[in-house]
Amino acid sequence: ARFRVVCCGRRFGKTRLAVVIGLAELLRHGAVMWVGPSFSKAEIGWRLFEELCVQLPMLTIRRGERRIIEPGGGWLSVLSADAKGGLRGEGVSLVIVDECAYVCDFMRIWEQELRPALTDKKGKAVFISVPNGFNHFFELFRLGKNGDNPEWKSWQLPSSENPFLDPLEIE
Questions:
Q1: Sign of the C-alpha dihedral computed for residues 160, 162, 163 and 169 taken in this order
Q2: How far is CA 99 from the centre of its chain?
Q3: Average pLDDT over residues 99-120
Q4: Adjacency order of strands within the sheet including 60-62
Q5: What is residue 133's predicted lDDT score, i.e. its pLDDT?
Q6: Number of Cβ atoms within 10 Å of the Cβ of 63
Q7: Would you give the DSSP letter of residue 74?
Q8: Taking 90 as the threshold, does the pLDDT of residue 88 lie above it?
């Protein structure tokens, strides 16, 4: 699906999954925008990207910009959604929104900044989060669950599905 919504429990591995998806797009010469609800949350994704990308010598890591450049023209930027208008700019082939349920004013950001950035490349989006009531993330999740629109797909899994978590810790 073009727009994918992943609603899973804490410590499930959502961010790691999305980092792998983002890195795969970058290595296909894609333009990737990783968005966190705040700078501190976006930094979690950045650290995981950095950890993987230092092992790939063909990539250039610009730590100060939180940007990774691929020699074929691809790039990946890690940004936060906490500044109005701060996500406007280049067209992208993939947007990943981490902790989407906690992004303030998300529908405005999606409609005015992120969705337009996908237009020229017919880009994709991945929204990952734990649930946070019946807010915008719940509405996105419903788009992919009801099957009315084939561009949207949603998944929901509990933390207990992570095989690396000790079941006693979950209890």
A1: negative
A2: 8
A3: 94
A4: 60-62, 67-69, 75-80, 31-36, 94-97, 124-129, 3-8, 152-157
A5: 87
A6: 9
A7: -
A8: no
Residue 31 has a CB neighbour count (10 Å cut-off) of: 21
Angle between helices 14-27 and 39-53 in degrees, nearest 10: 60
Nearest to 114 by CA among 8, 34, 42: 34
C-alpha to C-alpha distance for 122 and 167, rounded to whole angstroms: 41
Buried b (16+ CB within 10 A) or exposed e, 99-129: bbbbbeebeebbeebbeebbeeeebbbbbbb
Look at strands 60-62 and 94-97 and give their pairing. unpaired
Q: How far is CA 48 from CA 13, 15, 119, in A?
A: 12, 9, 28
Give the amino acid at 69.
I
| Paired tokens of 37 | 């609800």
Its pTM surpasses 0.90: yes
Is residue 67 a contact partner of residue 108, using CB atoms and an 8 Å limit?
A: no
147 has a pLDDT exceeding 80: no
Q: Which of 1, 10, 5 is nearest to 106 (CA)?
A: 5
Contact 115, 108 (CB under 8 A): no
Percent over 70 (pLDDT), the chain: 99
